[in-house]
Amino acid sequence: MTAVPRGGGRAGRLILAATSLSALGDGFRYTALPLLLLAVGAGTDTLSTAYVVNSVPGVLFVLFGGLLSDRYPAKRVVVLVDLVRAAAATVFTVALVLGAVTVWWVYLLIFVLATAEVVYFSAIQVFLADALDRSDLGVVNGRVASVTTTANSLAGPGAGAFLFGLAPVLPFLVDAVSFVAAAVCNGRVPTPRRTPGGAPVGRTGPAGAVTLLAAGFRTTFSDPVLRGLFAFAVARAFAAAAVLSVLAVFVVTERGLPVSHYGYVLAVGAVGGVLGGWLVSRYGDRVPLWRSTWVANIAFGLSFASLPLGAGVPVIGGLLAVNLAAAVWTAVLAATHRQRVVARDELGRTSSVLRLGVGVATVLGAAAAGLLGDVVPLGGFFVALGLGVLVVCAPFPRPPRPRAEPPVGPPGGARAERDGPVDVTA
């Protein structure tokens, strides 16, 4: 097999271009939607409902997304999802031009795009594994995380607010165009007819949907490394959702900072996410997976527990930057590990099992913040959340003993181990 240049070659560049374009459009929309809701007279109850609508598909459809990605070529699924998102954004744009948009139109757009994103999450994990050489996965995963954070949290929001000020329709129009451009880029990514391990890409066999989904759970929880990474991710997701859902109250109300400073805090924190993606793309394959993940989880917990010490943008934003850098580092290493050791015909479902756990933890974390945020001081609440992450992660500094063989696919499925077992301690 011809060696692929480090960084993924043409496939890696096209995937990064597609990710950058769609993430930038997403950043425009993330800023424009709340502004649009406020423009039509929405209150806090409407905004919170929009958050719930955005979260529901992550619980309802995530397993379906993983199953779809395993039964059909991932490239086809990714391109189809991009086109569906482009169509939804286009219809919304036309409705906005015609003056027909109501709050329910906004809810519908959020629901459709969130559902498509759930499918996209599982499909892109398989797509990367299909399109890239095994040695390039860590680099490209890190770059994808970095450009996504840059577009979503730095470039996108400011530009989206500017475009909305010019004309409310512009952010949504750009979002629709970005999805079309992403579909074109992803469609041009060269992918092999067969995975490196020799497994055919396509349907996994006659096994029923329930059997196939059960295999995804079995793969996740029977492997000690995957099981540990799952537990770490769920703990981080619960804490992050609880903190971020009330962070604005902490910054503006408890610390008495101007509203604009909340935006500054998020911007400083986003720099940490970009830095984390850059670091893991350069050094993620050079350090032990489990030990570096353990250190990052400790940093994640300590940064939340230290938030009460912050009184201004530099400290609060700096702690948030450390937190996001640690989160990106751990998420990228975990995704790369799954792509390298999980059978091709189980990768989508295994990724969706993680997404399900994270989705449930996110909803529960946000609910906990809503219930306790007015009862206990937020500073103490943040300390408890940070300590909770430490309790889950700190006792396990050494990696569990990995299985000698990769997970076995479902009945009738193909086994697709790539290039032999991976030593997770190296």
Automatic annotation (TrEMBL):
Bias kind Basic and acidic residues: ranges: 415-426
* Keywords linked to the UniProt accession: Cell membrane, Membrane, Transmembrane, Transmembrane helix
Entry GO MF terms: transmembrane transporter activity
Query: Its membrane topology, per UniProt?
Result: Multi-pass membrane protein
This protein's source sits in the domain of life called: Bacteria
Primary localization class, coarse? membrane
Q: Provide the protein's localization.
A: Cell membrane
Q: What is this protein called?
A: Predicted arabinose efflux permease, MFS family
Its GO CC terms? plasma membrane
At the highest ranks, the source species' classification is:
Bacteria, Bacillati, Actinomycetota, Actinomycetes, Micromonosporales
The ranges of region (Disordered) come to: 399-426
User: What PANTHER family does the annotation carry?
Assistant: INTEGRAL MEMBRANE EFFLUX PROTEIN-RELATED (PTHR23513), MAJOR FACILITATOR SUPERFAMILY ASSOCIATED DOMAIN-CONTAINING PROTEIN (PTHR23513:SF6)
Q: Supply the Pfam families for this chain.
A: MFS_1
Keyword Membrane listed? The answer is yes
